[in-house]
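no rush on this but wanted to send it before i forget. what follows is a protein written twice so to speak, once as letters and once as structure tokens for the fold. mainly i need to know what kind of three dimensional shape the backbone takes. thanks a lot i owe you, the record is right below.
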Amino acid sequence: MATTPTRRPRFTLHDARRADTRAFMKLIALADPGNPDPFGMARQVLALPHQPPLSHPGLNLCLLARDGHGAPVGALLAGVPRWILDHPGIGYDVALMETMVEKIGMIHGVAVRPGDRGRGIGRALIAHAEQRFTRAGYDVMTLNHDGDQDAYYTHLGYTVTDMLVINLPVGLVAQTTDDTRMCAKPLTPRVKVTDVPGAPAPIITGVLPGTDIPEHAWFDGRTLHM
């Protein structure tokens, strides 16, 4: 007698709450295995009450994925890019900093239980985070990742580079890391990631009024000419 193949259980996504702290921390630690206390700040976030427009106060989003049996299989932590808070081109301008933390989001970490990888759980977590940040009024999603994941994030619509460069009213602002790749994805058609001759990386434009770049623009190593 022929047997009917058993379908693998589907998964669901939901905001993580205080009761999910242990499961969330165990999963998100998989995204930074070399750290003795990976994403430790998430414990404090999860101890706070649920608060829109994301999931927790401080513009934080904590997501859990559960399989069809209710077991936690994936986690995502996102929020404000911490480099914005102390970047010399932004942090000293309080008004600009307060604007930027509500314009640029960052996925700090995303992880899926090893036995459940390849089922689209990570992609679903990332897509859901993008939707939540878009509804909250954000214009760009960013994240850092290891170099062997370039193709994965390119497929998800991210521009992958070694440096983030953003055109702001104060000029070009750049951010790098020592050991990871950086990538960005516009969440609104107004924002573009533009290749500019001479620039060290594609430039994110349109986040704030007056920061679009014309096609004939070029960079001489110090100044953006438009």
